[in-house]
Amino acid sequence: MKKIAVVTGGTSGIGRRTVERLLNEGWSVWSLGRSEQLLQQQRDDYQHTGGFRYALCDVADAASVASAFAEIARSVEGIDALVCSAGINITGSMEEMTPEDADRLIGVNVKGPWLCSRAALPLLRKRATPSNPARIVILGSIGGMRPKAGAGVYSATKAAVHVLAGVMAVEFAPSGVTVNAVAPGTTRTPMIETAQKNASATSGFKLSGASPLGRIGEVDDVVDVIDFFLSDASKYVNGAVLPVDGGTRAAFVKS
Ligand SMILES: NC(=O)c1ccc[n+]([C@@H]2O[C@H](COP(=O)([O-])OP(=O)(O)OC[C@H]3O[C@@H](n4cnc5c(N)ncnc54)[C@H](OP(=O)(O)O)[C@@H]3O)[C@@H](O)[C@H]2O)c1
Fold it and tell me: pLDDT-derived band of residue 204, with 50, 70 and 90 as boundaries?
């Protein structure tokens, strides 16, 4: 039986590569996104795999999340994994940040993974077995472990989602569902390209830049760890927040 995963933010960056990786490993994958055009393009790109499905979903909107998971539930009996990669980054000092920006950040980065995990739970329960739990993997950030000036609200949303992952890990464990978070450092994706462009216009904000390993992260560095959290090797790992940052947050560097 093919394993089935749902990936939010499936049309770009870490989410898109996760979709691709899982399809190549023989999973069936539902890519969730907001742009029908991008999802259709992705369907054309991955048609040859025979396992690609998609649904429109704005993760910050409870009705949209409910409708996406209802669509999935009409098509499959259960799912093995949910990867919550949808996220946004809006930079700005605490003085400059607007309440509307803060609402958007909290809606997508905190409410989003919670709404999706909650909606996915009945489907995950159906495929969970005592020896092999179903999995939820949430994209946090090292910003949530070592907050960054100029990205205070973003950092706070990522700290919040690490906490939510821990609480869901404990609450969902009796259902045979584990929840873990991956906390990337700066990783080469469209999100970071935009942050790089905006950096000079944001007071006090600086990208972390190269890690102690001498480079920034590549998407596959992060997807390798998502893959680990979905694999048999991690079946007893629950409630972890794992930095994937080349050591960036482990100690301050004198500049
Ligand atoms: N790249 C990094 O350096 C880095 C570092 C730490 C953590 N992360 C986290 O890793 C995750 C993936 O980031 P990425 O770098 O791959 O970014 P990305 O390339 O910008 O992809 C983000 C995805 O989230 C989707 N999204 C945004 N708002 C959404 C909403 N309301 N509903 C549904 N989907 C929405 C975007 O879709 P649209 O096209 O519809 O906007 C896009 O597909 C994020 O949670 C991010 O915070 C990234």
Answer: low
> Going by C-beta distance under 8 Å and a sequence separation of 6 or more, which residues neighbour residue 167?
none
What are the sequence ranges of the domains in the chain?
4-244
Options 3.40.980.10, 3.40.50.300, 2.40.30.10, 3.40.50.720; CATH for 4-244 is: 3.40.50.720
Would you state the pLDDT for residue 130? 79
d(CA 185, CA 195): 13
Ligand 1 in reach of 108 Cβ (< 6 A): yes
| Two tokens, residue 236 | 């007893």
Question: Contact at 8 Å (CB) between 142 and 245?
Answer: yes
Q: Is 15 in the pocket of ligand 1 (CB under 6 A)?
A: yes
Atom of ligand 1 at shortest range from CA of 86: 24
**pLDDT tens column, 10-22:** 999 999 999 999 9
Given a cut of 70, whether residue 203 has pLDDT beyond it is: no
Counting atoms of ligand 1 from 1, which one is nearest the CA of 61? 31
Q: Tens digits of per-residue pLDDT, 111-125?
A: 999 999 999 999 999
Distance CA 132, CA 231 (A): 9
| Contact in structure between 104 and 132 (CB atoms under 8 Å) | no
